[in-house]
Amino acid sequence: MTTISPITQADFDEWSGLWRGYLTFYGTELSEEVTAETFRRLVEDRELHGVVARDDDGRAIGIVHWLTHPATWSRSAYCYLEDLYVETASRGSGTGRRLIAHVREWAAERECQKVYWLTQETNMTARALYDSVATHTGYTHYQIAL
After folding, report:
1. What domains sit in the chain, N to C, each tagged with a CATH number?
2. Which of 15, 17, 65, 78 has a CA-to-CA distance to 53 between 20 and 30 Å?
3. Do 82 and 68 touch, CB atoms closer than 8 A?
4. pLDDT tens, 124-136?
5. What does the DSSP 8-state code read for residue 84?
6. Among 29, 12, 22, 14, which residue's Cα sits nearest to residue 123?
7. Are 107 and 68 in contact (CB under 8 A)?
8. Model confidence pLDDT, tens digit, residues 25-83
9. Is residue 103 a contact partner of residue 81, using CB atoms and an 8 Å limit?
């Protein structure tokens, strides 16, 4: 049975392996400084939140990170699921579904209005999961790099 627990300082090596896998999947690189700062903020669990999923042998197989923010269309916060990654060998095991459910439960306990996230249009494997647990809103994402 997959277990889910908050990311701790002791998780750095396993977390960073999954983090690098996630970044590689999306074809991006980040500096070691950004990675170290992200991990520090996740461990502090104040603005960024994160958990690690472990298999029956205790091996880290997935991660999810999220944050909340105020919203203009609600009196309560929105929860943004920013990063979700399950190692290739563990995909299809229900780990991604469990990680999303964990964030949903966390957000509901804090009375957030909704949980939302983005993915690439071509990420069909993940989208099949997302379509089964959430509503596709039809919005298209734009950004301006600064």
Report:
1. 3-133 (3.40.630.30)
2. 78
3. no
4. 899 999 999 999 9
5. E
6. 22
7. yes
8. 999 999 999 999 999 999 997 899 999 999 999 999 999 999 999 999 999 999 999 99
9. yes
